[in-house]
Write a structure and sequence with these properties.
Helix content: over 70%
Radius of gyration: 25 Å
Number of strands: 0
Distance between the termini: 58 Å
Shape: globular
Order of helices and strands: HHHHHHHHHHHHHHHHHH
Number of helices: 18
Largest sheet: none
């Protein structure tokens, strides 16, 4: 009990200087936005500065409650467009937006664990503001998806500045405080599929894996997550851009590896170079195809000859049809080849 009281007392010492947040925003590259959304953005930020001055954790809990709404709004409108058959090729973006909402939800849970929702007034204001914000974004997206994404880009960029200032101002104190359990579970859990899904501007080999050891690491992870949301919102505004995550690359790579193994086993031809239209969107596919063809030539010939015999030795009397089926499966997965051979 005493440790909890001490922890709570230290949390109350955390500070956020609104003027320094605005200073950060003014010193970085400005996001271009028309006055029709820039004006309400400034009013909203000034309102938060006034309402939550001296209460950063409550401010963050409010922000994360509301921050989920744009992605729910966008998924709603994408469902509507898909149902009407207007924009079905963008239906996959729903998955990205869901992953963004899931990320913001865990930010919310983190600040709940830190006591950001203790005030009834804060809960009342946040929950009702979230309902209003949801419908505002639905209407904005209906009028112009680009405007809606532009507004979210502004909000997420301000969040980066806010969390960045908060982390720098309280670094020493937060490094003394343990991270909430939900934060450790989310950022250091085994399944990171959805975490990678919303980081659309990253490529294979550049995945983020935050190391959470204290509260400072948590705030830095949230700050960097918000930066990924900024990049995704910017990408959603670019014409001709297909918003995709690292998981798409993993799927293509897995398909390519399967192809190279089966091509070697069944003498299928080389992997062709992707069409120019595809390369314009995914330029990294060209060197990937070349590399897969190189790997194809490196598959040992003896694997083809030994697999059926090894299966028959392990399972004597197994019907030929099962031997063939097992052979096809085992040959497609290197770790199974190692196991059997």
């Amino acid at each position: 009990m005493e440790e909890c009281v001490n922890y709570r007392q230290k949390l109350k010492q955390l500070q956020l200087d609104n003027d320094k947040v605005w200073e950060r925003e003014n010193n970085r590259t400005q996001i271009e936005a028309p006055f029709v959304i820039k004006a309400p953005y400034i009013v909203l930020c000034l309102m938060l500065d006034s309402l939550f001055d001296g209460r950063p954790l409550e401010r963050f809990w409010f922000l994360e409650t509301v921050a989920r709404m744009p992605y729910l709004s966008y998924v709603t409108m994408l469902h509507l467009y898909e149902s009407f058959g207007w924009w079905r090729r963008a239906a996959a973006v729903k998955r990205v937006h869901f992953a963004e909402e899931w990320n913001e939800f865990h930010h919310l849970l983190t600040f709940e664990a830190l006591g950001g929702d203790r005030s009834w007034a804060t809960r009342f204001l946040a929950q009702h503001a979230a309902i209003v914000y949801y419908w505002v974004l639905v209407l904005m997206w209906l009028l112009s998806p680009t405007l809606a994404y532009n507004f979210s880009e502004l909000i997420e960029a301000h969040a980066v500045d806010t969390y960045g200032e908060f982390a720098d101002a309280n670094e020493e104190l937060m490094k003394e405080l343990p991270a909430p359990g939900i934060a450790i579970q989310y950022w250091m859990g085994g399944d990171m599929y959805l975490y990678d899904e919303f980081q659309t501007e990253r490529r294979l080999g550049d995945e983020r894996r935050p190391n959470i050891t204290n509260l400072y690491d948590v705030i830095c992870a949230i700050r960097d997550d918000e930066a990924e949301h900024v990049a995704t919102m910017a990408a959603c505004q670019k014409k001709g851009t297909i918003v995709s995550s690292i998981n798409i690359e993993r799927g293509i790579l897995a398909a390519g590896v399967t192809y190279l193994l089966t091509s070697k086993l069944f003498e299928v031809g080389d992997i062709p170079e992707p069409p120019e239209q595809i390369l314009a969107i995914f330029p990294w596919l060209a060197p990937l195809a070349v590399r897969l063809n190189e790997l194809r030539e490196a598959v040992p010939e003896e694997w083809v000859e030994r697999v059926p015999q090894v299966i028959q030795d392990i399972f004597p009397g197994l019907p030929e049809v099962f031997v063939s089926a097992l052979t096809s499966i085992i040959r497609q997965f290197p770790f199974l080849l190692d196991m059997f051979l």
